[in-house]
Write a structure and sequence with these properties.
Length: about 60
């Protein structure tokens, strides 16, 4: 059976808005990962400073 040209699935290039949305979503995920890592390291530094202060106080 031969299908007319209009019946076959055409290869569409992705919509520029979709590409932009995907890039923005990826950038937001990376930014969130970076902020979480930064918050963890700051919390860890505070905890270490707190421990160091307690060690100095002990006789």
């Amino acid at each position: 059976m031969v299908y007319p040209c209009g019946m076959t699935a055409s290869v569409k290039s992705p919509d520029p808005k979709d590409e932009r949305a995907e890039r923005l979503a990826a950038a937001l995920r990376e930014n969130l990962k970076r902020r979480k890592l930064q918050a963890r390291s700051q919390a860890e530094a505070k905890e270490q400073a707190k421990r160091a202060g307690k060690e100095k106080e002990k006789p």
